[in-house]
Design goal:
By secondary structure, the chain is mainly α. The protein has one domain (2-102). Helices cover 72% and strands 0% of the residues. The chain is built from six helices and no strands. Helix 2 (30-39) packs antiparallel against helix 3 (45-55), helix 2 (30-39) runs parallel beside helix 4 and helix 4 packs parallel to helix 6. The longest helix has 24 residues, at 2-25.
C-alpha cells in the first residue's frame, strides 16, 4: 500500500506541475516568461515542451527565449527543429534576425 500511495503522490505532483506550467503559459506578462525560462532546466520533457511552445506565442517571449539561449542558460538543442524553424520564420523581424544569428546551422 505504501508504494501505491507514493506512486499516486508522484503522479499527482507531476499533474500539478503540468497544470502549473499550463497556467503560467497562459499568462501574458514578462514575469510569466521569466518563470517559464527559469523552470526549463528542471522540467520533464513534456512540461518543457509546453513551456517552449508558450515561449513562442509572441515576440517578447520569443526574444526572452533567444536571449536565454544566448546567455547559455538554455541549450538551443532543446528547441527541436520545428521550433527553430518557427523562430527563423517568426513574424517579428527582430526575433527572426536574432534567431538567424543564434541558431545558424
Amino acid at each position: 500500500m505504501k508504494r501505491k500511495t507514493m506512486f499516486l503522490s508522484l503522479a499527482g505532483a507531476a499533474l500539478g506541475l503540468s497544470l502549473a506550467v499550463s497556467g503560467v503559459a497562459d499568462v501574458n506578462s514578462p514575469q510569466a516568461a521569466e518563470s517559464l525560462l527559469a523552470a526549463l532546466p528542471v522540467l520533464s520533457e513534456g512540461n518543457r515542451n509546453l513551456a517552449l511552445d508558450a515561449l513562442l506565442r509572441d515576440a517578447p517571449r520569443a526574444s526572452a527565449l533567444l536571449e536565454t539561449i544566448a546567455s547559455k542558460k538554455v541549450n538551443a538543442s532543446q528547441l527541436g527543429e520545428a521550433r527553430i524553424a518557427k523562430l527563423k520564420a517568426f513574424a517579428d523581424e527582430h526575433v527572426r534576425r536574432r534567431a538567424g544569428e543564434l541558431l545558424a546551422r
